[in-house]
Amino acid sequence: MPRSTHYRSKSARCGLIFLSLPDFTHPAIAVFYSIFGAAVALGWVLGGKPERCGALTLASIFSVQLILYSTISDPTFDEIDFVGVITDAIGLLGFTAIALSANRIWPLFAAAMQLIAVLAHLTHGFRPMLGQSYVDFEAYPTAFVTLCVIGGVAMHRYRLKKYGHDRDWVPFKKYQEYRALAQETEQF
Question: Torsion over CA of 89, 149, 6 and 3, rounded to 10 degrees?
Answer without folding.
Answer: 20
